[in-house]
Each structure stands twice: as structure tokens, then as C-alpha cells.
């Protein structure tokens, strides 16, 4: 499964979604061919949360992936509309994961572009802006997920 969750998140009734490209189908994890598989994973997770954690109130994410339409199409519109930039959280996988592809292979092209940009940077801020994407953090009421995926 590519999706998993943490609950509670920081001692609050929040579900924290996580993603890892664990798809071994030969297609990209976020390809159109794999949309049904990703949605099935989310339905499984949300059904479990609905059963095991009825006190869960919100769903929160945080990743560079929220910059990508193929990822965003998996979620309720209210969740995607809530995305807020949180900058370049240098200590977290949510930022550095953009340099990996399936099977934890390095994306040589992305790394090369990043290194070239860092080399031209004159300030720490310019170094941070060398990342292709910054981290976006969506959060919304879990009921939007239950409605979107028809979980009762």
C-alpha cells in the first residue's frame, strides 16, 4: 500500500496521511492506470479510521506532492482547497522525497537541476527556493473524506 496514516497526530484528534511510492505494478503510483488502486487504499484507511477512531475530527497532510494534479485528484476538493504553503521544511521527508522515484531510486534529473540552482544561489533563501516544490499542508474536516468516498 502506498498510503498509511498516523492517529492521533500530535495528541490531537487529527489523522495524518502519509504516502510512499510502494507501487510495483510497472505503472507510476500516481498514473491514471493506478488511480483506482490509490483510491481503494484511501477507502480502506478511511473505513478503518471510521471504525477504530470515531473521535477523529480532521485529516491533515504535508508534502511536496500536493503540488501535483495526479496526487490532488485523489482527495476531496475541500481538502485540496485548504492547502497552505509551509515553505521548505528541510528536516523532513515531505520535502526531500521529491528527489526519489519508485523503488527509492534517485531522480538524477531532479537532483541535477537542484544542484545547479543551489550553485547559482547567493543566499540561504535562494538555496531553499532551489527545490522544485515547496511543502503544502492541507487540512479539513474528516467528514469531507467520508462523504467523498461514501463511507458511512
Task: Give an overview of the whole structure.
The chain has 152 residues and is an alpha+beta fold. 37% of the residues lie in helices and 18% in strands. It is built from seven helices and eight strands; from the N terminus they run ββαβααβαββααββα. The protein has helices at residues 35-52, 69-72, 77-81, 93-96, 108-120, 124-128, 142-148, and strands at residues 3-6, 14-19, 58-60, 84-87, 100-101, 105-106, 135-137, 139-141. The strands form three sheets. A four-stranded mixed beta sheet has the order 1-2-3-8. Strands 4-7 form a two-stranded antiparallel ribbon. The chain is globular, with a radius of gyration of 16 Å.
Assembly of the depicted chains:
single chain
The proportion of strand residues reads 15-25%
Profile the largest sheet. Answer: 4 strands, mixed
Helix content: 25-40%
User: What structural class do helix, strand and pairing data support?
Assistant: alpha+beta
The geometry reads as globular
Query: Can you give the mean pLDDT?
Result: 94
Order of helices and strands: EEHEHHEHEEHHEEH
How many helices? The count is 7
Number of E strands: 8
Cα radius of gyration in angstroms: 16 Å
N-to-C span: 23 Å
Residue runs with pLDDT of under 50 for 5 or more positions = none
Spatial strand sequence of the major β-sheet: 1-2-3-8
Amino acid at each position: 500500500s502506498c498510503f498509511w496514516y498516523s492517529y492521533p497526530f500530535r495528541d490531537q484528534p487529527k489523522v495524518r496521511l502519509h504516502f510512499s511510492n510502494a507501487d510495483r505494478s510497472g505503472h507510476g503510483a500516481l498514473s491514471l492506470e493506478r488511480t483506482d488502486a490509490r483510491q481503494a487504499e484511501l477507502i480502506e484507511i478511511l473505513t478503518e479510521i471510521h471504525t477504530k477512531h470515531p473521535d477523529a475530527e480532521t485529516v491533515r497532510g504535508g508534502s511536496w506532492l500536493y503540488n501535483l494534479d495526479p496526487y490532488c485528484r485523489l482527495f476531496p476538493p475541500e481538502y485540496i482547497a485548504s492547502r497552505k504553503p509551509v515553505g521548505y521544511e528541510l528536516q523532513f521527508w515531505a520535502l526531500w522525497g521529491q528527489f526519489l522515484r519508485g523503488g527509492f531510486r534517485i531522480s538524477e534529473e531532479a537532483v541535477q537541476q537542484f544542484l545547479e540552482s543551489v550553485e547559482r544561489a547567493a543566499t540561504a533563501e535562494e538555496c531553499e527556493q532551489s527545490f522544485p516544490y515547496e511543502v503544502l499542508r492541507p487540512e479539513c474536516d474528516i467528514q469531507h473524506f467520508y462523504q467523498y468516498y461514501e463511507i458511512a
